[in-house]
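thoughts on my protein:
***
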Amino acid sequence: MELRQLRYFVVLAEELHFGRAADRLFITTPTLSQQLKVLERELGTPLVLRGRRTELTPAGAALLVSGRAVLRAADEAVRSARRAGGVDDPRLRLGLVNGAPPWLPTRIGELARAAVPGARTVLTSGTTTEQAELLAAGAVDLALLRAPVQLPAAFVRRPVAAEELGILMSATHPLAGASILTPDELDGHELILFPRDVAPGLHDRLLDELRARGVRMRLSDSVLGHAQMVSVLPSRDDVVGVGSLRARRPGLVWRAFPGDPLIVTYVAAWPRDSRHPVLRGVLEMLPAGALTGPAEL
């Protein structure tokens, strides 16, 4: 097994979509599929189920957990060897929360290269909770997370981006034809959310916002990550989910929450005492407000 193949698999397991995973890896979808087949042949077992939806097999779920640990260990081994050899390595270890606007890490990378010529960013994806843990463990230099999030006093945070959240539903859902949703129309409908432990602050805020807007929805017994939810919703006309406009795709419609826009904020967080040269350069160039991305976002 090559580390490259393992990285390919981990990204695919996080996206559960060959096209999106290939985009993240900057390779073609056929290349990703071919390398996955090579890895499955070597292991002697399927890792994903290919069909209308991409799903992990039990073997794939097990490899995702251990694979992430292996990749982190490999990255740390490289860093240790370079430090011991006195090799200058101007790179920024960037923790990227799953589902962040794709332009956001690109802008951070641009700032890093502007601050330190030749600098590069090394991305590690994960949930808000996982990014906070990586930050606390010193495994990333800068983490991008969704607020609200609790962090120890040893870390500084700064808002860097924001986008509006709304209701996602199947194009065949009874409410799909309504251009504006009212609290009464949403009453009693089943809402699928992500597991609370991946982002407790945002999970609780969403439920609080619904109650404050007079929306009495039923929290589903089903608990799905964002990628899985987006894959499931087109075939379910009895449930709704939450997402940004970026989540729209064939078979899905997006509607704003009743009342004022519901905005989710992305924050950058880093150790208060960090002297990382690339990080310090990025922080000096960060605008006082927020970074901006494409107009459609």
